[in-house]
Amino acid sequence: MSASEAHRSSTVPTKHWTALDDGRVRCDVCPRACALQDGQRGLCFVRAREGEGIVLTTYGRSSGFCMDPIEKKPLAHFLPGSAVLSFGTAGCNLSCKFCQNWDISKSRAFDTLATTGAPNAIAQAARAHGARSVAYTYNDPVVFLEYAIDVAKACHTEGIKNVAVTAGYVSDAPRAELFEHMDAANVDLKSFSESFYRNVAGGHLEPVLDTLRYLVHRTNVWTEITTLLIPGHNDSDEEITRLSEWVGRELGDDIPIHFSAFHPDYRMRDVPATPATTLTRARAIARGAGLKHVYTGNVHDAEGDTTYCASCGEAVIRRDWYRLLEYRLDHGGHCVGCGAALAGRFEGPPGTWGARRLPIEPQVFAAKR
Fold it and tell me: CA 269, 76, 121 angle in degrees (round to 5)?
């Protein structure tokens, strides 16, 4: 297939846009509100002006598919131990200088999207490989909204749940449309500083906070939060305290939060990796602020991987990286010691996927189109 043929086959019209009086067309998917002349692309690179509207240029094409443990998303209170089929496309509507997936999210090469996958093929592959959910990840489902929604619909038809791994930088109408089809989300709260969002991530803080409020108070989507702690940028005691207090006050003290370790990458290679002690300190601050479920990520930390009953304090899920070592919940997610319900989504016994990462070959999807 030629490049032009591939472009045509993966380009679909969208509906979240507005024609402006000056002849430009504004993309309304995210707060960036890119106003485009014909032929121009938004900052995300994958949403473009063609004619009188905005099109998505990556429909049905992925940077790859992989089976992962659900804990890697990270989700600690959603179908523990289960397998999730993960995939993404290309492009991103933020411009984080520290991006850990920059080779995918910042890709401008169509060759990155080497694997094709029709929605029903993805859903069937998830079921065939034993996945209980599909995760829209690596870049952000916000930028491939139409594709993500169609895959999610197909997954629900097959009894497969849907997980959005997202920065939460999305406008009201498309946000409602996307999360109508999601069962869980991990939202990347990059900092609790507007200046950080503006100068390091290329966005704004308040739209992300609004997405978190929306998910927790207006949907049934199980929500967890991840904050990547970057030395000297967003890891101060004061900022971690403000973030933790906001989560407890605005979202609730049972929302899990994951403090994750940064490694030098993309345009922040001169910043040192996050010490494990920083994550331990952040976890202690958040727990001191009243949050009940605080985890550490990207480091080996048995304490930071363990889930505790918020009622009796007993360890109910012990983990070693992504492998479950001990599971003391009944099939409905109640502590077997005191009977209290653990916040989250639990259905039946825990999974046994473990720490495996299993790439799925492209022909799996081609055969089921």
Answer: 85
Distance between the two ends of the chain, CA-based, in angstroms? 16
Q: Return the structure tokens found at 284.
A: 């202690």
Contacts of 85 (CB under 8 A, 6+ apart): 65, 66, 67, 68, 122, 125, 126, 129, 131, 133, 134, 135, 360
Burial class (CB in 10 A: 0-12, 13-18, 19+), 84: buried
Burial of 56 (0-12, 13-18, 19+ CB in 10 A): buried
* Dihedral pair phi/psi, residue 319, rounded to 5°: -130, 155
Buried b (16+ CB within 10 A) or exposed e, 229-245: bbeebbbeeebbbebbb
Instruction: Kindly report the pTM of this predicted structure.
Output: 0.95
Cβ atoms of 88 and 62 within 8 Å: the answer is yes
- Coil/strand/helix, residue 201: helix
Per residue in 279-337, pLDDT (tens digit) is 999 999 999 999 999 999 999 999 999 999 999 999 999 999 899 999 999 999 999 99
Q: What CA–CA distances, in Å, run from 288 to 184, 191, 240, 285, 291? A: 26, 19, 11, 5, 7
Task: Give DSSP secondary structure letters for 100-167.
Answer: TTHHHHT---GGG--EE--HHHHHHHHHHTT-SEEEE-SS-TTTTHHHHHHHHHHHHHTT-EEEEEE-
Half-sphere exposure of 279 (CA within 13 A, CB side): 25
DSSP code at position 342: P
CA quadruple 60, 64, 66, 69: dihedral sign: negative
329 bridge partner residues: 335
Q: Tokens representing 199?
A: 């100068």
* Residue located via tokens 């790439």: 359
d(CA 97, CA 99): 6
Q: What is the DSSP string of 73-97?
A: TT-SSBSTT-EEEEEE-S--SS--T
